[in-house]
Design goal:
heterodimer, A: about 240 residues, Rossmann fold, six-stranded mixed beta sheet, 10 strands, B: alpha+beta, 2 domains, two-stranded antiparallel sheet, 17 helices, about 15% strand, elongated
Amino acid sequence: MSPPAAPSAAAPSVARTVIRAEAVERTLPGVVPVRLVRGVSLSILSGEFVSIQGPSGSGKSSLLYLLGLLDVPTAGRIHLDGVDTSGFDEDDLAEVRLAKLGFVFQFHFLLGEFTALQNVMLPMEKLGRLAPAARRERALSLLFDLGLDGHETKRPDQLSGGQRQRVAIARAMANDPIVILADEPTGNLDRASSANVQEILKRLTRERGTAVVAVTHDGDFARAGDRIVRIVDGRIEGEG
Amino acid sequence: MMLGLRIALIHLTGRKRQTVMSLLGIALGVAFFMAVSALMRGSEEDFISRLVDSAPHVTVSDEFREPPEQPVLAAHPDGAVVLRGLKPRTEVRGIRGWRQKLERISALAGVRAAPVLTGQAILTFAGKEQGLTLSGVVPDLMAGVSDIDDKIVEGSLAALDADPNGIIVGKGLTDKLHLAMGENVTVSSPTGLVRTLKIVGIFETGTTSIDEGQGYVLLKRAQILFDRPDRANLIVVQIDDPYGARDLATRIEALVGYRAQSWQEASDSLMSVLLIRNIIMYSVVAAILVVASFGIFNVISTVVMEKQRDIAILKSMGFHARDVRFIFVAEGAAVGAMGSVVGVLLGYALMWGMSVVEIQPPGSSQLVNLPVYWGVDQVALAAAFALVSAAGAAWIPARKAGRVHPVDILRGGMA
């Protein structure tokens, strides 16, 4: 089905392509159609930390939603883990997101009435792959890894911004995804917390081989990654 | 699904006051549904049982359903025969050979029958006159087919046997004419015969028209008064299962040839009134529940509006549209279910309250309790209707929640 892959030259030999976008377009319909993303082709390898940078309104978040299968391209294809997702309906996409992707957003987007532990367990409960006891254990160890031990039973409004973002990362990692997609994960955090989140994501790529794709304004954060993709006017202007 | 239920529960407990208010709406709806339908069903059953108990299940009268076929028509079924100015032959009215017919009817299984000769008479006492429907009965047989014996407050039906010149009248009549047991009254018949009869019994049915206008004498005495020797014009029939009366009437009619009318046939128009009454009642109480479910619609709509971000995050995480819909329909159903439970308790309390109220029905002289029907079928109906309308009311906002596109919300959140 899929045409021969042409991954970027910088990929290490052991890495595999987890996301491949081919000439992806996204146009918002309307009297004056808005072209958010124009002909973007991009490959993400496992264990890679890719930052997407660009001015406001350049289409970087739109590209991230497309790569994360939250939105469907109007033209072009997105392959996830070698599978072409272009024929998938909403339910199929939801299944793929649940099993293979994790999301971190600028505003933590935790469920306010649930504790940190319950928030982290949510995707596992939905997937149902682990037994209830194992889910709890995994959620606890994720929170511990992110330095949140002692905060498990706190609700989001009892946590600081940095802590909430770490809970969101723990939740994104819950089902052991192959890619974590982050939209301005440090946009709302102070310098110390930003550095902490950046370090955690970096460690994730190293230790677990999870790919991280992050949209960011933060130059330090972007430079910490393996690769920076610059988007201007919906197009890739350069990589480095 | 358990996860969906948990989220639903958290949403509901998060806005306790609104949840409780809409729950109360449903509870009141269910309670009124139960109370009103219990009263309507109860009064219907009460009404039918009065009808069944006080009237004969089947009445065989000295009439024919169809006029007898004329010999000339029978002889020329295909002929162009027209008869005009036909007048039935004059004959002594009454059921011919009533003794044989009574025997044949009584021989049917589970059937009791008694002969009656009924006619109009005028009772005179102290210069006052009162029209009376006089029934000539055989006390032993009559006791088996009518509850008149139970309605007698003074004297007894059997006293007629002891005194052939006895008469039993209603309490309404004795009150009206200031009569008492043992007093003599004058009864005159349309044939001009006048007899002095002695009051040997007084009955009270609670229905004014019967208590003032009905009287019982011996069959023999009635035959003399109405000048119809050895005649009866009605055979009244009682059976063990009153609802089999329609079939029995058909069988009896085929057996004896005379018109046999079941109590259902006799009160056809009343039965259709009851049906219409039920339709009105169920529409009204159903409307109460529909209105109550608007409360649920409100709560769930508000929750959906408020939880757009949560819905977006759940969907981005991999929840399907149907998982999201389930959460909100479950919330509606949960409010409906809890409302039903509270409503059923409240409904039973209302029903109990009504059952102890005493009223005097118009046209009756007795105090009676409100008739309340205690069957569980109406409870099940009320609860089921509440659940369905609650889930239905939640479905509309739930569908909207299922359609939430995470990207729309996320984009808004980034702005």
